[in-house]
Amino acid sequence: MSDWLGGSPHDVALDFGGAAVRYRELARAVGRVVLPDGDGAVGCPAGMDPVALVATVLAAIDRGRPVLVGGPARGVLEQLPVGTELALLTSGSSGGGSGPRVVARTSASWLASAQPLADVAGLDARDRIAVTGPLHVSMHLYAVLHALWLGATAGDDLRSATVMHATPTRLARVLDGGACPPAVVVAGAATSDELRSRAAARSIRLTEYYGAAELSFVLAGGADGLVPFPGVEVDLRPGPAGDELWARSPYLALGTVGGGMLRRDDAGFATVGDLAERTSSGAIRVLGRGDAAITIAGATVLAEHVEALLCTLAGVTAAAVVGEPHELLGQRVVAVVELADGIDLEEVASAARERLSAAELPRRWFARALPRTDSGKVARGAVRDALATGELGAGHPVAFERSAS
């Protein structure tokens, strides 16, 4: 039976929607899965029942069939790298226009990180581990498979959970709602000091990590900063927009289909173009994706940095920052913000002037709901496309702009 099933037969393996499935029952379900004829890839489309999805993924791996999670398998098999066992459909948050991409990896590349994550986050078989998003998203699927490897219980009930996997945005919403598990594994975006403080005030243990679907785990840590995840070598190398973070580990994907930012070198290192810097303590701070850098009159502005500052302003619930062409500056900053009820955009723009430098300050503002990826991250690429096509409109009055001089 699958290397991923580490629990005792009578223990609960999965508990979604209040329907508990024991390890013995899950093993039987895996054995009963009927895969399509032939030796081609098996598809697990988005929206599939969690138990059925997990059983199908494990059945395909056990029987040597590539499994595509997040979409149908048609037309993908012939493009997958040799040795692919898990193919994960991902739209990303910064890319736009090229459509979804598929990240291809081996099951062993995920299994290799199972014990290190357990050690870093302090997880074991006694835990009840809650995921906060759909299982066709790679970070949530890994969280469930990791729980099964531990022999723990994976599910969606936050009230009974001892650990929760979540993005920072999702963690903030859970804290707003009251009940939160005593330990949280946070990934998918940078965690703000404010969010760390909120968690600490309630004695919630945070384990933060940085990774990417193509790289898996790269860095881990907490409030003191991130350091290389066990088994990972990192290197900061100069790039067009700043120092890029490169990693070499047993956890890397085989490759991608349909584009993406993955680059490799002959020494086994890989990068997705994220920018990083070393702090005075020797930790590593991830600054953001290099393709999200905006060049204004020779100065480089990182979209993630501006977004993080905007989200600290009263009434701003989410923000997306992109660059648009400008004949004098090269580019200028555009901000799209989601606002709480009753919040006036002019007040937000005024507050932003006090927090942002002249280069960082948005020259055009839009207040509207933001598109999101399946994992809940703001889809900056979709915002960029909507701006380019004129779908966003003209923005708010010129009075919100500040002189470019």
Describe the 3D structure.
It is a single chain. With 405 residues, the chain is an alpha/beta fold. It folds into two domains: 12-284, ANL, N-terminal domain (Rossmann fold); 297-391, 2-Layer Sandwich (GMP Synthetase, Chain A, domain 3), CATH 3.30.300. It has helices at 23-32, 50-62, 107-111, 114-121, 138-150, 168-177, 193-201, 303-310, 345-355, 380-389, and strands spanning 12-16, 19-22, 42-45, 67-70, 86-90, 101-105, 128-131, 153-155, 163-166, 183-186, 205-212, 216-222, 225-228, 233-239, 242-248, 255-257, 263-264, 270-271, 274-278, 284-289, 293-296, 299-302, 316-326, 330-339, 364-367. The protein has a nine-stranded mixed sheet with strand order 2-1-8-7-9-10-11-12-13, sandwiched between helices. β12 (216-222) and β13 form a beta hairpin. Residues 93-98 have low confidence and may be disordered. This is Long-chain fatty acid--CoA ligase. Belongs to the ATP-dependent AMP-binding enzyme family.
